[in-house]
Amino acid sequence: MQYTCGYFPIGNESIDEAQVAKFELIRNRFENHRGSLVAKDHLDIGCGWGGLASYFSDNFKTRSVGNTNCHAQMEYAQRHFDCEIMLDDFSRLESTDRRFDLITIVGIIEHLTPSRRTHLLEVVRNLLHSDGLAYIQCIVKPSIWIGGDAYRIVQREVSPGHFLETHEQTVRRLEQSGFTVLDQSDGCHDYGLTTSRWVDNLQRNESALVALLGSRRYRMFVGYLAFASHMFLSGRGSLMRYTIEKRNR
User: Fold this and answer.
1) pLDDT at 51 over 90
2) Residues 6+ apart with CB under 8 A from 43
């Protein structure tokens, strides 16, 4: 139940293997800077169906908590993973007195307006321990944009409200919000492979998805993901991974 970009260190991983590799990548980044994750307090903002928080808790022995604004996702995570979920918009996390060693924010920022991005980073800064780290994974706008009509379809039909900033704008926002970037890498090839695997899954389940979504929306999602795969595999899309800490620790 992961629907954000995986990680393909070899290149021939299945989509499930790539998602687990992403979890391992996040752990390695934390441990490179702060040591073991065992018994660390971890918050996954925008936890979706709870898979990341559950995996961290079960395999990395963290004290993981998820946050989602979707009641159905909370119920799924609690039923399947026995996850602790904080149900509400991330802005409501300001009222908690809990603090965390690691905060993960995967596939969220690109769905926020500029003011909401800044607000999210303020919340994250306040929730982190003084030596805590945050991991952010997000699509950024490439220096040469070729989206055209395809991007307008994404904004209108696939991800309403979707808003992209460039890598430079994203780093500037992180720094203005009081963070220092420790690690950064572009996973454009990983996102190209992820979307390619998703297209394969859609096509294998065409009849069930057409019955669920209708033929028009099925074709739209296949076309969107196929276009995204081509764009990112050719290096004309960008997915950034940032490890950040609060400035002046």
Assistant:
1) yes
2) 64, 65, 66, 67, 93, 98, 100, 102, 103, 104, 127
Report in angstroms the alpha-carbon separations of 168 from 50, 92, 140, 142, 235. Answer: 31, 29, 9, 10, 17
CA 245 to chain centre: 18
CB atoms within 10 A of CB 216: 10
| pTM, rounded to two decimals | 0.94
**116 CB-near residues (< 8 Å, 6+ apart):** none
* Nearest residue to 113 (alpha-carbon basis) of 159, 157, 68, 149: 159
Rounded Cα distance between 126 and 89, Å, is 16
pLDDT surpassing 60 at residue 104? yes
Quote the crossing angle between the two packed helices 215-233 and 188-204, to the nearest 10°.
Answer: 150
146-167 pLDDT per residue, tens: 656 666 777 777 777 778 899 9
Closest CA to 19 of 61, 56, 66, 70: 56
Cβ atoms 109, 82 nearer than 8 A: no
Show the CA angle centred on residue 30, arms to residues 25 and 35, nearest 5°: 125
Q: Which residues lie across from 242 on neighbouring strands?
A: 136, 184
54 or 153: which leads in pLDDT: 54
